[in-house]
Task: inverse folding
């Protein structure tokens, strides 16, 4: 007896919940051979605004958590991803047409990327910050803090639909930023399944929000949003990056331009792109 | 008679050996600019100092190509240790000629000689000395692997600390191996032009440092738009910073911005009050309040508000306003007529919006641009004087009851450059410092600067840091990053 499979409804990931787009719109996702895979939600401007609100609400908790705690949560995401690796392999194969071996390499790299960042959380401030030997009787210390809400355009190539997203999100999370991510437009399914991983990994709701749909439609809204502090445009094409960077100038957002990092690159500099150095002076005296 | 009767002790200007006119310094030579000329004046007397030739876009083009040539042929090929020795030389020469530079800066800017002599110029020398030592140690800066220079840096600086801002820009750029084209501010080009003599005495190769006075809308704009520039560093207003960020969108030109501020100076009821009073005054009346990191919003715990205001105004009454060259002067001249008009207008707005105005009753010279130290009380958070950067000797006093309220009010601004905390409780100080969204926090002190200490803002106060190894990263590429 054959059994009819139960396919998943792909929705958005906002504030730790999985709502449909308020616009009611969806986009049909097809495999490279033209078979129907899913109708994914097509996020609207209002969904983007909801995601920013959720991210901002989550920021004080996540940035205020201990670095040790953030490291354990990121490691937990890696554990959950490892446990569901085969599901991602199947999804990537279906969406992109690569061989299972290629897909597996990508999933394993995504897991290792998370582990790499999990290890950075309680080391980054020591490496990036430090004591400053000023010429006077002062205690003086510089410490990196999170920038705040980071909006990112995940790499759009089908080959990095999971790894590209993870490589963009993880560096921002490491130092306590919260994220609104626009998933790969052509292969968004792995991103939404990754949201399920996040949701079962002790990542507080709102710390990561993932939207699917028309990236060129939604990204400029995030770029001009006054409560977004920074943009990662690694996955944006030239025209979209220009539009977003211009909009971002109005509120002086920190911007990572396309090409600044490879789509799946992990680097100290990528973590450093979304921190603010705070320097505290205090007098020293015996009085 | 009161203590105000004292013998003036003006610093002599005889130490200066100024020319009648100055050109642009491009590729190691003085040339005439094609953007007309202007007279730089002393804001304290309105007397002309020198005629300054101004750059237009063709001059900027020449300066960028001179900087490129020296980058390609000399500076980028030189070892870090040799580069560093030039910077050490510059630091030493500045120390030797410190008094001369202090007088020139005071003359051109209007700030008290006490500040240029004891703060500006010593810090300028210290900045070069600090970065000199970095030039051959970039691999150890902890900024990433394979540090490398960017190329030609375009640098645009403000008028409030003219030579100090030059040092903040030029020293790290050169240490990291870049060459520079620097545009000083319209009203304060003098010390940047005198700095050329230092470069020449140091034997700095031609084209490594190019100085191009000019108008922001002409020379500054041309520099930002120039495709031969690899990096723009700007210190100035948030409005211009926005414009620059917009212009550079979609390019590969790197950018750091050090913009405006509306710093909160928070005084808790357990503060050492007399020290706090001095810190409040340093916070807002240092350099006539022409300080982006000024503590322009005083947040006082409600139960000590009256005591603080009373002691503050009593202490302010002892300040001397007048001839900036006089060694007794505390408050110098406002830098320009335009700035004086801005300060006057915004103060009138504050009054019209219901704040109580207190202004120091003191004589003001007949000539020049002057604004008496002013304190606003009964200020609401929505009042213009509590929100907009005034960039003048004007303090707004607000109150709070709990630490949480102080933090919320301090952070209630699009800016995030500086903040002050006055309390004897160290745990509270550290917790409040954690919560403030500002790049520099002074606890039980204010307006301290040091070349080893990173300086720069959160939010709309800009991005990037100046000072220390953090300041190097503005002029270096590392790892795989571009």
Result:
């Amino acid at each position: 007896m054959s059994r009819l499979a139960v396919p998943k409804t792909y929705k958005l990931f906002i504030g730790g919940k999985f709502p449909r787009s308020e616009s009611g719109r969806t986009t049909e996702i097809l495999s490279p051979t033209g078979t129907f895979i899913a109708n994914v939600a097509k996020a609207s401007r209002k969904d983007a605004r909801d995601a920013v609100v959720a991210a901002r609400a989550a920021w004080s908790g996540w940035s205020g958590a201990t670095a040790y705690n953030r490291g354990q949560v990121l490691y937990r995401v890696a554990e959950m991803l490892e446990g569901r690796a085969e599901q991602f392999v199947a999804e990537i194969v279906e969406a992109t047409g690569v061989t299972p071996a290629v897909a597996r390499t990508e999933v394993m790299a995504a897991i290792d990327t998370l582990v790499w960042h999990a290890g950075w959380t309680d080391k980054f401030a020591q490496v990036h910050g430090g004591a400053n030997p000023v010429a006077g009787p002062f205690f003086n210390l510089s410490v990196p803090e999170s920038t705040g809400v980071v909006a990112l355009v995940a790499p759009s190539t089908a080959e990095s639909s999971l790894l590209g997203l993870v490589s963009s999100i993880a560096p921002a999370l490491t130092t306590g930023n919260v994220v609104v991510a626009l998933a790969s437009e052509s292969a968004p399914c792995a991103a939404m399944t990754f949201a399920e991983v996040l949701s079962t990994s002790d990542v507080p709701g709102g710390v990561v929000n993932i939207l699917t749909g028309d990236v060129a439609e939604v990204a400029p809204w995030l770029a001009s949003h006054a409560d977004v502090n920074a943009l990662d445009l690694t996955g944006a094409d030239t025209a979209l990056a220009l539009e977003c960077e211009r909009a971002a100038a109005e509120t002086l957002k920190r911007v990572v331009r396309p090409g600044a990092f490879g789509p799946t690159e992990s680097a100290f500099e990528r973590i450093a792109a979304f921190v603010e150095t705070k320097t505290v002076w205090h007098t020293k005296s015996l009085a | 008679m009161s203590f105000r009767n004292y013998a003036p002790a003006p610093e002599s200007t005889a130490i200066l050996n100024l020319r009648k006119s100055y050109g642009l310094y491009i590729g190691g030579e003085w040339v005439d600019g094609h953007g007309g000329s202007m007279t730089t004046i002393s804001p304290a007397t309105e007397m002309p100092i020198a005629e300054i030739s101004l750059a237009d876009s063709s001059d900027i083009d020449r300066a960028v190509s001179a900087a490129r040539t020296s980058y390609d042929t000399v500076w980028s090929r030189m070892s870090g240790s040799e580069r560093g020795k030039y910077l050490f030389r510059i630091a030493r020469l500045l120390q030797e000629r410190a008094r001369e530079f202090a007088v020139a800066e005071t003359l051109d800017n209007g700030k008290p000689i006490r500040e240029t002599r004891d703060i500006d110029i010593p810090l300028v020398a210290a900045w070069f000395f600090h970065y000199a030592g970095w030039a051959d140690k970039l691999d150890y800066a902890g900024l990433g692997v394979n540090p490398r220079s960017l190329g030609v840096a375009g640098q645009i600086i403000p008028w409030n600390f003219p030579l100090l801002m030059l040092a903040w820009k030029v020293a790290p750029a050169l240490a990291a191996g870049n060459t520079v084209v620097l545009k000083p501010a319209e009203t304060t080009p003098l010390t940047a032009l005198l700095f050329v003599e230092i470069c020449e005495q140091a034997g700095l190769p031609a084209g490594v440092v190019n100085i191009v006075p000019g108008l922001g809308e002409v020379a500054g704009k041309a520099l930002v738009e120039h495709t031969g520039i690899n990096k723009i560093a700007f210190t100035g207003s948030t409005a211009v910073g926005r414009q620059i960020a917009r212009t550079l969108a979609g390019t590969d030109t790197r950018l750091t911005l050090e913009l405006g501020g509306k710093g909160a100076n928070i005084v808790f009821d357990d503060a050492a009050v007399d020290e706090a009073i001095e810190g409040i005054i340093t916070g807002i009346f240092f350099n006539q309040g022409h300080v982006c990191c000024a503590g322009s919003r005083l947040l006082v715990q409600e139960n000590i508000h009256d005591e603080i205001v009373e002691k503050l105004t009593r202490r302010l009454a002892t300040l001397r306003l007048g001839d900036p060259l006089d060694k007794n002067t505390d408050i110098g001249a406002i830098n320009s007529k335009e700035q004086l008009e801005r300060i006057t207008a915004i103060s009138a707005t504050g009054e019209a919006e219901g704040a109580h105005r207190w202004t120091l009753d003191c004589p003001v010279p007949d000539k020049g641009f002057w604004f008496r130290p002013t304190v606003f009380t009964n200020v609401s958070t929505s009042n213009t004087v509590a929100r907009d950067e005034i960039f003048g000797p004007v303090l707004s006093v607000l109150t709070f009851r709990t630490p949480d309220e102080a933090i919320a009010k301090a952070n209630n601004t699009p800016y995030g450059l500086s903040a002050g905390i006055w309390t004897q409780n160290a745990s509270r100080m550290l917790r409040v410092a954690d919560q403030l969204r500002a790049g520099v926090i002074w606890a039980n002190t204010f307006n301290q600067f040091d070349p080893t200490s990173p300086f720069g803002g959160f939010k709309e106060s800009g991005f990037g840091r100046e000072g220390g190894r953090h300041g190097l990263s503005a002029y270096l590429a590392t790892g795989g990053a571009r």
Q: What stands out?
A: The first helix of chain A runs from residue 45 to 64. Chain A has one domain: 26-283. Residues 2 and 63 of chain A are 50 Å apart (CA to CA). The longest strand of chain A covers residues 138-146.
